[in-house]
Amino acid sequence: MRPVHIVYVSAGNGHRMAARALRESFDHRAVPNVIMDILDFSSDLFKWSYSDVYAFVSEHSHLACRIMYELTDKNREASVALRLFEKISTENVKKFMRYIAENEPKKCICTHYFPLNVLSRMKEEGLYRGEIYTVITDFGLRRMWVKDSVDKYFISGDRVLSGLLELGVPSEKIAMTGIPVSKKYSVLEKKGRNFQEKKLSVLFVASSIPNALALEILASLSRTGLPLDVTVVTGRNRDLLADLENAVFGETLSLRILGFVNNLEVLMSEASVLITKPGGLTVSEALCAAIPMVLVNPIPKQETNNSAYLQEKGAGILASTASDVERLISGFFRNRSILVSMEQAAAAIAFPTAADDVAEIVLEGKKGAKK
Known about the structure:
Number of strands: 12
CATH architecture of the largest domain: 3-Layer(aba) Sandwich
Oligomer: single chain
Mean pLDDT: 92
Largest sheet: 6 strands, parallel
Low-confidence stretches: 366-371
Order of helices and strands: EHEHHHHEHEEHEEHEHEHEHEHEHHH
CATH topology of the largest domain: Rossmann fold
Strand order of the largest sheet: 2-1-3-4-5-6
Radius of gyration: 21 Å
């Protein structure tokens, strides 16, 4: 059996984590697979411009993110800018195209639209004859995910479903599996939180949030004067970790500061509320942990679309400012029934077995469970 190829792009962490979750599922089935970042087949300069520049702009210039999104979220035939962008991108991954042509994988799964676009073009030109599957890693649809050559779309919610159908994608090509998350999220103990404890437990995932805003949010929590147990995860943001170690907050705020962690699922299952950016993978993990979410600093438009979906379903609330965070947490503290409702709403739209469901469909060609 030829290995299943799982292709992602290291622009943000979510695409890579979804790919790794799929690999975990295939490994569990003893199915040969290859996982790869398409940018590893490009020059260092192109990889830097696509990955590192994206990370910088997404954190510091939401206006630039919005402009780029709107420029590329168009019909390809009607957009000169989009066709130019695709041509430049494709020219920089010729080594990947040569690899695919020489190895002829039967099944490729894309967790980013860039490799999807490359494989689709190769299929149109007769350079690739295998199957193409794509995992849409957000809760809203961007046109760059949509290609005629896709054999199956794996999606996370009804907004993406309606968008695909409106663009003429046949329903039999769509499987409502959710976004793949690590298996450890599917085995979390399913128990309701005790929201009646005197203190409120807050988990703040601040790794991708600007340092100034993260500090402002913590200051706003301190201003509530309420007894809060706050755990801050800074990830690989060492500057933020250093800033927090020197910061001083009010006495009622019990603060635990963590850097990079491997047990985020445990922290999510133990906390009463999560403050986070609404990235597609982080949100999917949080839904599996059924934790109510306060959503901050979303990237236009993919993360603002995620926020809108979560608010529509009752699992999360967008906080536009640090003062909004203060107001929401204060409201939760005084009315715990809100958190109970949000917990139930999150559990209702979670897909903890998404990776296994995707793997099953890819290997056996089943339609997959609708939810």
